[in-house]
Amino acid sequence: MGEIFRVLVCGLLCLLVTAPAARAGGKVVIKGSTTVLPVAQAAAEAYVKLHKDVNISLYGGGSGDGVKALIDKSTDIANSSREMKKQETDLAKSKGVNPMAHIVAIDAIVPIVNPKNKVKDLSTDQLSQIYQGKITNWKEVGGENLAIVVISRDSSSGTYESWGHLVLNGAKVTPRAQLQASSGAIVQAISKNRYAIGYISIGYLNKSVQALTVGGVQASAKTTLSKEYPVARPLYMYTNGALKGDTEGFIKFLLSKKGQEIVKKEGFVPVK
Length: 272
Known about the structure:
Helices cover 31% and strands 24% of the residues. The chain has 272 residues and is α/β, with parallel strands linked by helices. Helix 2 packs parallel to helix 3.
């Protein structure tokens, strides 16, 4: 991060973002979704440039970990790529925590394959059957006579839960699926395996993989906001009760025009 930022990597992924020679001041702890992490990191770097007495610590690990940290009062902000579940909200309230949701971006979940794969489009029903293990060969969906290798996020991921809701309608993922801990790990796996299929957040797309259209619709900011693209969801930051202090300052910055420009630059869809 050069002279401006220090980034410390630890555990599940911890980033400490601080201005150089910062005075003793505010501290914001952010934990949770690896999907939201690139937006949170970029926004944190921009925020501490403007507020040199503030330190921001970022931890990945998944939406479930962020929600758990909010309930345990070990984080100021919980990043989540899914809405909190009722049982999580009930548990939080039993511990004196009042979860408040702040939608900071919109995300399209995009099915991806290896660039050598001839399949370009799948319907949500075909995706569902592939992930349930009912369609097992690419020839069944217009591709080559090759066995399909199913790659999925792990069950602690909010993206996993959103995919299960939006595509599988609650059905279980095939036990043969290979589980990965992040969208980045799925991209890497798909880029090396011509038989594989996976799904990632739109912000993680790059040229090493091929994005599929879903029902003939390409994922984009326009089709996501219009809801024409069927596999999309909000990205959240949860706080305990009403915003205050540096937590309020950070989230208000992220929802400002400059903050939403950061969201767009990171490949996600601004909420404004």
